[in-house]
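We modelled each protein-ligand pair independently. The example shown here corresponds to the zinc ion entry; the chain sequence is given first, followed by the ligand as SMILES.
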Amino acid sequence: MELVKVGESTYYISNRTNIGVFKLNDKDVCLIDTGNDEDAGKKILKILNEENLNVKYIINTHSHADHIGGNKIIKKRCDCEILASDVEKCFINNPLFEPTFLYGSKIFRELDNKFLRANESDCQSLKEINGLEYISLKGHSYNMIGVKTKDNVYFLGDALVSEETINKYHLFFLYDVREYLNTLDYLETLEGKFYIPAHTQVVANLFPLININRNKIKEICDVILNICDGKNIDNIVKEVFTFYQLKMNCNQYFLVSSTIKAYLTYLLEEEKIKYEFINNEMLWFKIN
Ligand SMILES: [Zn+2]
């Protein structure tokens, strides 16, 4: 891990979750996301320490555990402010909400793990920071944001999934399919110098990645449409997994079920599917 310069005041640390670093002055920085866990936080602090840099703010693009895992240790060491958009802020302050949201009720022990439940951190509402601009990137999560720096570099959180991940897993987590597609359209209008998605390399041209993401969503819509011949949600999830030859585990099951439900909402709103209760079972049908 090292500090990579991408603009006069804009840097990033390449990691499993890329970390944005914006220099506010000679000694203070604003971080964009903090990585998977406390270890990631410690590595970030070490790199900044070597450059005599102190963290004044952390902006979290959204509340998922792999973006906020270093919050607690960094705040403890630097006494920084942690900022996030509405709703995401509530999840960051109450990390139990994330697995609870996925499961839909009180969780059981196996769902209480660091991939779903981050350490809690004391997060405030977004505020103006000189040199930074917030952009709305809804879809992947309820109220995700991106950050544009004055150097015309965009940090995009999880608004785009890498080609490798899409080819390997096909399904990626979504909360709102329509908003995700709207966000892809919006990304096409940007004229940034560099774009930094959280889990893939920096790019100067976003179009190829936008198309890959959009095409996969359309493909998944078609896959689900073909499965909706009177199946319940669990069976739709199973068929989608089988179609893509994926293997289920507990975290995967709840992440993918939640995502498939987002697709069902979208297809229902598009009047491409309907549901019926037959023998006390909620079954989904394609509308021909
Ligand atoms: Zn995420």
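The first strand starts at residue 3 and ends at 5.
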